[in-house]
């Protein structure tokens, strides 16, 4: 890929896309983590730890954006989810399995702290 497109992809990937982190159970009862970038349809990563899922999502998000740039496809804006901002509550500091976050947590899932965390900040 062209170095100019790669640099642009890095800039876009770091422009504040939302990251959701979910702790899920597998069918055999083990836990795994899903990291999702909801503005980028289908941009999902998983890991055995929260950190592993988040690191994988960063790589996948960059590859996703590089692909869109390479084929001149539209890139959703991180602000596209601003209309849902009313449903999120400010959380100053949270920890999921030792990984600290600052950002926003969805009101509907406050009772289930391990289920979902979302942030548009760098995590």
Produce a short descriptive summary.
The protein has 123 residues and is α+β, with helices and mostly antiparallel strands. The protein has helices at 3-13, 50-70, and strands spanning 19-25, 31-36, 44-47, 88-96, 99-106, 117-119. The protein starts with a helix and ends with a strand.
Number of domains: 1
Shape: elongated
Strand content: 25-35%
Largest sheet data: 4 strands, antiparallel
CATH architecture: 2-Layer Sandwich
Compute the average pLDDT: 75
In terms of structural class, how would the helical and strand content be classed? alpha+beta
At the fold tier of CATH, the topology name is: Double Stranded RNA Binding Domain
Find the count of extended strands (DSSP E, 2+ residues): 6
Low-confidence stretches: 80-94, 101-117, 119-123
**Side-by-side strand order of the widest sheet:** 3-2-1-6
Query: What percent of residues adopt helix (DSSP H or I)?
Result: 25-40%
The radius of gyration is 15 Å
Number of helices: 2
What CATH first level would be assigned? Alpha Beta
CA distance, first residue to last residue = 27 Å
Topology order in helix (H) and strand (E) letters: HEEEHEEE
Structural overview:
The chain is an alpha+beta fold and 123 residues long. The chain is 26% helix and 30% strand. The longest helix is centred in the middle third of the chain and has 21 residues, at 50-70. It starts with a helix and ends with a strand. 20% of the residues are buried.
